[in-house]
């Protein structure tokens, strides 16, 4: 039994949907994100759906699936590379050739050897990115097409084009005396490929949580202000750390004229924050941090920068999933860590580093609904189809979109994450396993 099932069984249903104990195929075919932290978010009608998984995979035991995946991988050899994000279930991580954060996985997709297929165990925007960066002819496969991201779905190309037109009408397009354009678009990696392409077309860039500061520096050299989408919290936390006052970060709500801000606020803005958020990280609170400090004097609190600003301010450190892992791996003395990120990763860190006491800030936090949809049944299916000479669940970004998205992604890959005291530690994460 995995840790999430344990969590579900030990907590009342109100805290986390009990349906998590079911296979994702029980809810993949219905609209929505399924049980987990984003259960209440509204999935757009265009969100990819997953067709029915053959019964032999739905009905196999964990041990049978593990054996089938291992056998398929042996049969395929170097024809396939499996990439996995840190939030994946342990049963998936066990089969990954490379495990990393979203920056590292984008980099890996570009540099993997000449495998015919990259099986991406993560979410849809990550697979799209891999397809844009992979070598020509390499197929990128997402084992479950319903593994989206509710935050990524909070910005769509029509809303961003509309916002851009309103901002251009307000600012014009003339650079200032220093040659900086009025506004530059920055999209978080957690966005659809057409939004990355939008950034490529408009002189903008993609960021991840690990290089957001480097990316904003890059953008401020070229522009008077930034339109940052879709995650308001990453944008706010990063800009605040760089000294941008909160009052110069108006919000853009795509359902309101001028995003719900005044023209004056937008003229004074340094960063315009899209009204998007992650339902996993939104659950963390300052109260949880206060309780952790009271119960564990000396606790080291580390959160992901997708958490709301008061939570990041109250924590000791904030950083990407790779930062969090390196912080734990680099601690030389037994330490108590309270971590504000997805439960699968926190549980894995706790098992991997028994010399430390590691717990999730929110003891009843739900997993990311969509990361959790990559089940071993789907992984076994896509691999066995490859063995049989069939490619299923390929994620393909159209050529014209990919060309513009690649421009913004290449800029992102050149904007390296800043070294920190903890990331300077042993290179234990993101390493080829
Ligand atoms: P990382 O870039 O830190 O891996 O984060 C990706 C993500 O989706 C976090 O919710
Ligand atoms: Fe998206 Fe949040 Fe899940 Fe990350 S944790 S993939 S931002 S829903």
Describe this structure in a few short sentences.
The protein is of the alpha/beta class and 433 residues long.
Could you outline the blueprint of secondary structure elements for this entry?
Elements: H1 3-10, H2 55-58, H3 62-76, E1 80-85, H4 90-93, E2 98-100, H5 102-111, E3 117-121, H6 124-133, E4 139-141, H7 157-171, E5 184-188, H8 193-201, E6 205-207, H9 212-222, E7 226-229, H10 232-241, E8 251-252, H11 263-268, E9 271-274, H12 286-295, E10 300-303, H13 309-314, E11 317-318, H14 321-329, E12 336-340, H15 343-352, E13 357-360, H16 376-387, H17 399-414
Bound molecules: 1,3-dihydroxyacetonephosphate and iron/sulfur cluster.
1,3-dihydroxyacetonephosphate (13P) binds at residues 101-103, 190, 208-210, 278, 306, 320-321.
């Amino acid at each position: 039994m995995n840790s999430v099932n344990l969590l579900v069984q030990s907590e009342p249903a109100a805290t986390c949907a009990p349906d998590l104990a079911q296979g994702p195929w029980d809810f993949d075919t219905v609209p929505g994100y399924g049980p987990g932290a984003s259960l209440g978010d509204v999935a757009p009608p265009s969100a990819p759906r997953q067709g029915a998984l053959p019964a032999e995979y739905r009905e196999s035991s964990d041990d049978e699936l593990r054996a089938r995946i291992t056998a398929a991988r042996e049969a395929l050899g170097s024809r396939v590379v499996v990439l996995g994000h840190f939030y994946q279930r342990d049963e998936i991580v066990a089969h990954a050739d490379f495990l990393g954060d979203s920056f590292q996985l984008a980099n890996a997709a570009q540099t993997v050897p000449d495998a015919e297929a990259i099986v991406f165990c993560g979410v849809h925007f990550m697979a799209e990115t891999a397809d844009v960066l992979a070598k020509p002819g390499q197929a990128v496969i997402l084992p479950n097409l319903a593994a989206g991201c509710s935050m990524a779905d909070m910005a769509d190309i029509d809303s961003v084009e509309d916002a851009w037109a309103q901002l251009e009408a307000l600012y014009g397009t003339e650079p200032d005396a220093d040659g900086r354009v009025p506004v530059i678009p920055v999209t978080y990696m957690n966005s659809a490929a057409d939004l990355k392409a939008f950034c490529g077309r408009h002189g903008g860039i993609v960021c991840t949580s690990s290089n957001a500061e480097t990316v904003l520096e890059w953008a401020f050299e070229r522009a008077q202000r930034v339109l940052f989408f879709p995650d308001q919290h990453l944008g706010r936390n990063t800009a605040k750390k760089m000294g941008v006052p909160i009052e110069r970060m108006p919000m853009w709500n795509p359902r309101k004229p001028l995003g719900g801000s005044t023209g004056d606020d937008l003229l004074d803005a340094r960063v315009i924050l899209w009204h998007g958020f992650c339902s996993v990280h939104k659950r963390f609170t300052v109260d949880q941090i206060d309780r952790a400090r009271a119960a564990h004097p000396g606790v080291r609190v580390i959160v992901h920068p997708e958490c709301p600003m008061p939570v990041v301010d109250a924590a000791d450190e904030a950083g990407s999933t790779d930062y969090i892992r390196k912080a734990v791996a680099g601690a030389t003395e037994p330490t108590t860590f309270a971590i504000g990120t997805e439960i699968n990763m926190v549980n894995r860190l706790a098992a991997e580093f028994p010399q430390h006491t590691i717990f999730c800030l929110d003891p009843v936090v739900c997993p990311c609904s969509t990361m959790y949809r990559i089940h071993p049944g789907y992984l076994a299916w896509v691999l066995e189809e490859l063995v049989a000479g069939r490619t299923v669940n390929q994620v393909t970004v159209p050529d014209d979109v990919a060309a513009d998205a690649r421009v913004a992604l290449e800029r992102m890959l050149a904007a390296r994450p800043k070294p920190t005291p903890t990331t300077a530690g042993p290179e234990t994460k993101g390493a080829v396993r």
